[in-house]
Design brief:
The complex is a heterodimer of chains A (414) and B (154). Chain A is an alpha/beta fold. Chain A folds into 2 domains: 141 residues, Aspartate Aminotransferase, domain 1, CATH 3.90.1150; 254 residues, Aspartate Aminotransferase, domain 2, CATH 3.40.640.10. In chain A, 42% of the residues lie in helices and 16% in strands. Chain A starts with 7 loop residues before the first helix and ends with a helix. Chain B has a single domain, classed as Sufe protein. Chain: A. In chain B, 42% of the residues lie in helices and 16% in strands. In chain B, a hairpin with a 6-residue loop joins strand 1 and strand 2. Chain B is globular. The chains are: A alpha/beta (414), B alpha+beta (154).
């Protein structure tokens, strides 16, 4: 049921937080990987080894230790670039995906958007790809327009087409895989539409890069963002992968150390990319960690990861589909969706459900998932969400089903 | 030791959740306040009618989990008939209980005392406080004549 050579149990054994809970006889059915992933020992060990063996500030240091730190830091960047097929010099580290979007919104948007210009995003964006654009639109007089979500949770591309044809659209922001609906959006087609209309594009790949093969050139965006902590890596590091010339044309976002070529009392000049966008001492151990995570994923094989998750997501849909009265959001066809599955029970609030299944060691998320425009479009204040990853087993999914049954019994609705 | 689920979901809480008291809206509220819980997106509206310096009637509407809905029901039941000053005193006592302090002896919280277990589930404290903070907001806005005219919602 999983990809050739892929063994979720072996991955689980690599992840201390899960392996130790298993060993203690209180196994975790951790189904909240869309919020953050658990970390394999290899990632933790690489970060620990950096501090124990190679800690120094990166770049410019002439002694061997500083050279070693720089080498490990840049090796992290190279691994991340290899995972997504981006050019290392056009692969910028930020503190998370939100900050990576802000780099583009401020460094590009603030300087290029004019009053009346339009930024198009979609109703299924995470707040991280909405709010920075709203802020910059407020400062420039540009407008933010939304592509609606229709049918079983897909984008109404006719609206995008109309906006591109009739409005001065300068930027199209779209999420690759919805963190709520699981929908896989046709990003290659969307970025082509944007380019044909003379607009730039930014793809939020936070929920795709960790889970499926993603090749920067195939996505076709000018900018693509994702985050370390959802892909087996640490918190505190995110990635902006960009088209080299688009990035090179941009002025800095944050100013400070590291990002300059020269600083004089009458003005400063900027370092080359990517360092121009990495002001201050960077998150060095985190870069080492995200690099180790990228290597771990590549060793598993992203095709295998995708096959494993497709099978598990099918099981999630089956288990949830068997619950009386449940509403499950997003595409039914597992080929058209990633692993996040959101659902509502008619008579148990998401908060209560998440609290009650926690009794059985089942971790699911309840809330608006930082996607309030989408929640309004679905007509619910909140949903419960289960999301699988490389260490998720069929047993975890079955335990979710059993825990929901027991929660319903507890609330007297079974 | 992890708190048990029984500390959170006591029988009386589920009873209020399934058959909430004072659920709905008032036709002629003196003041009406809407509050939301940014964490979960839940929203509650509290309508208050004041007569002769007392809370003559109170209603709550909106969406929420068992904790926020039962807390609204328990609060409404307790507060009808009280002066705004007495009500604000109870609200403050309840807020302190939600943050783990013991209930003061001289303040009657009624069924809401069953919510004391929520203090051990930090993620749910906001749920329990939602309606109570809405009422506090409503009563304080009536105290301020500029705010009281025509009610308000925020």
């Amino acid at each position: 049921m999983t990809g050739a050579g892929f063994d979720a149990r072996a991955v689980r054994a690599d992840v201390p937080i899960l392996a130790e809970a298993d060993a203690a006889g209180r196994p975790l059915a951790y189904l909240d990987s869309a919020a953050t992933s658990q970390k394999p020992a290899a990632v933790l060990a690489a970060m620990d080894a950096y501090y124990r063996e190679a800690n120094a500030n990166v770049h410019r240091g002439v002694y061997a230790l500083a050279a070693e730190a720089t080498e490990r830091f840049e090796a992290g960047r190279a691994s991340v670039a290899r995972l997504v097929g981006s050019r290392p010099e056009a692969t910028v580290f930020a503190k998370n995906a939100s900050e990576a979007v802000n780099v583009v919104a401020y460094a590009w948007g603030l300087r290029n958007l004019r009053a009346g210009d339009v930024v198009v995003v979609t109703e299924m964006e995470h707040h991280s790809n909405i709010v920075p654009w709203q802020i910059v639109a407020g400062l420039t007089g540009a407008r933010v327009e939304f592509v609606p979500v229709v049918d079983d949770g897909v984008l109404d591309l006719a609206v995008l087409e109309r906006l591109l044809a009739t409005e001065p659209v300068r930027m199209v922001g779209v999420v690759h895989v919805s963190n709520v609906l699981g929908t896989i959006n046709p990003v290659a087609a969307i970025t082509r539409m944007a380019r044909d209309a003379g607009a730039l594009s930014l793809v939020d790949a936070s929920q795709s890069v960790p889970h499926m093969p993603v090749v920067f050139d195939d996505v076709g965006a000018d900018f693509m963002v994702f985050t370390g902590h959802k892909m087996l890596g640490p918190t505190g590091i995110g990635v902006l992968a960009a088209r080299r010339d688009a990035l090179d044309a941009m002025e800095p976002f944050l100013g400070g150390g590291e990002m300059i070529r020269d600083v004089r009392t009458d003005g400063s000049t900027w370092a080359d990319i990517p360092h121009r966008f990495e002001a201050g001492t960077p998150p060095i151990a985190e870069a080492v960690g995200i690099g180790a995570a990228a290597e771990y994923l590549m060793a598993l094989g992203m095709e295998n990861v995708r096959a494993h998750e497709t099978a598990l997501t099918g099981r999630v849909l089956d288990v949830l589909g068997a619950v009386e009265g449940i509403a499950v959001y997003g595409p039914r066809d597992v080929a058209r969706r990633g692993s996040p599955v959101s659902f509502s029970l008619p008579d148990i609030h998401p908060h209560d459900l998440a609290q009650l299944v926690d009794r059985d060691g089942v971790c699911v998320r309840a809330g608006h998932h930082c996607a309030k425009p989408l929640m309004r479009s679905l007509g619910v204040p909140a949903t419960t969400r289960a999301s699988a990853y490389v260490y998720t087993t069929p047993d975890d999914v079955d335990r979710l089903g059993a825990a929901i049954a027991s929660a319903r019994a507890f609330m007297g609705v079974a | 030791m992890m708190p048990g689920i029984e500390d959170l979901y006591q029988e009386i809480i589920l009873t209020h959740y399934k058959a909430p008291k004072h659920r709905g809206t008032l036709a002629d509220p003196t003041v009406s306040v809407t509050q939301n819980n940014p964490m979960c997106g839940d929203e509650i509206r509290v309508d208050v009618r004041l007569e002769d310096g007392r809370i003559a009637d109170l209603a709550h509407s909106g969406q929420g989990c068992s904790i926020s809905q039962s807390a609204a029901s328990m609060m409404s039941e307790q507060m009808v008939g009280r002066t705004p000053g007495e009500a604000l005193e109870s609200i403050e006592a309840f807020r302190r209980v939600m943050h783990g302090d013991p209930a003061p002896d001289d303040v009657e919280l009624g069924d809401a005392e069953a919510l004391s277990g929520v203090a051990r589930f930090p993620a749910r404290v906001k749920c329990a406080l939602l309606a109570w903070m809405a009422l506090k907001d409503a009563l304080q806005s009536v105290d301020d004549p500029k705010e009281a005219t025509g009610g308000r919602s925020d």
